[in-house]
Amino acid sequence: MLFAAVLCVAFFPPLIASCAMAFLTIGDTFAALVGINFGKRWYIKQNKSLEGSLACFVSCSVFGIFWLGSPFLAVLGALAATLAELSNIPIDDNITIPIFSALVMTLLSIVI
Question: 68, 100 in Cβ contact below 8 A?
């Protein structure tokens, strides 16, 4: 987690870096809490549920809209964080969530 935070601070704008790190703490926590307690639809070959993924997306979106002020940027960043949390790559999601969401939000902020 510290490694991902250092990379975010070093390579991304401060507002996006702080939002991406918050996506990790908020989104991953809500995904685990909701998925463990209310998860009914589990993904094949993964220990993750649809309900947990939706909780990650909604919580990251709500936070991002208030933090960034741009609903478009916040929702797409939250989607990137959710997909990184859901991904089945061998890198820990404590690294993939902030890096992937910060990368997506930075690229979108250049385009917008």
Answer: no
pLDDT, one tens digit per residue, over 61-92 is 999 999 998 999 999 999 999 999 888 888 88
Please tell me the distance from the alpha carbon of residue 31 to that of residue 27, in angstroms, as a whole number. 6
Q: What is the pTM of this model?
A: 0.90
Contact 24, 95 (CB under 8 A): no
Rounded Cα distance between 99 and 85, Å, is 11
42: β partners:
49
* 76, 105 Cβ separation under 8 angstroms: yes
Kindly list the distances between the CA atom of residue 96 and the CA atoms of 37, 66, 84, 101, in Å, as whole numbers in the listed order.
24, 23, 6, 8
* Cα 35-39-44 angle, rounded to 5 deg: 95
